Amino acid sequence: MTDPVLDELLRPYRDQIFYLGHVHGSKPRLPLWFKHFDRGPDGAGEAYHLGIFGKTGSGKSVLAKMILLAYARYPKMALLVIDPQGEFARDMKKGGTSGEFALPVGDVARKLGKQPVTLTVRNLVLDRWELFEQILFESLFFERLTVPKGENRELACGVLADKLQKAKIKLADLHQRKSFDAAWALLQDDKVQKVFYRTEASRARFDTALHEADPDEFFNDYWRPVAELFREDRPGAKSINKALAWLLSLTNDDGAPRDNRPILVIDLSKEQAKGLFWNDKIQSLVIKRLLDGLGQTAEYFYKENQSLNALVVIDEAHRLAPRELPSEDDAARGVRGVLIDAARTTRKYGLGWLFISQTLSSLHPEILQQLRIFFFGFGLALGQEFQSLRQLVGSSGTALDLYQLFRDPHSAFDAKSRQYSFMTIGPVSPLSFSGSPLFLNAFNTVEAFLDANDLST
Question: What is the pTM of this model?
Answer without folding.
Answer: 0.91
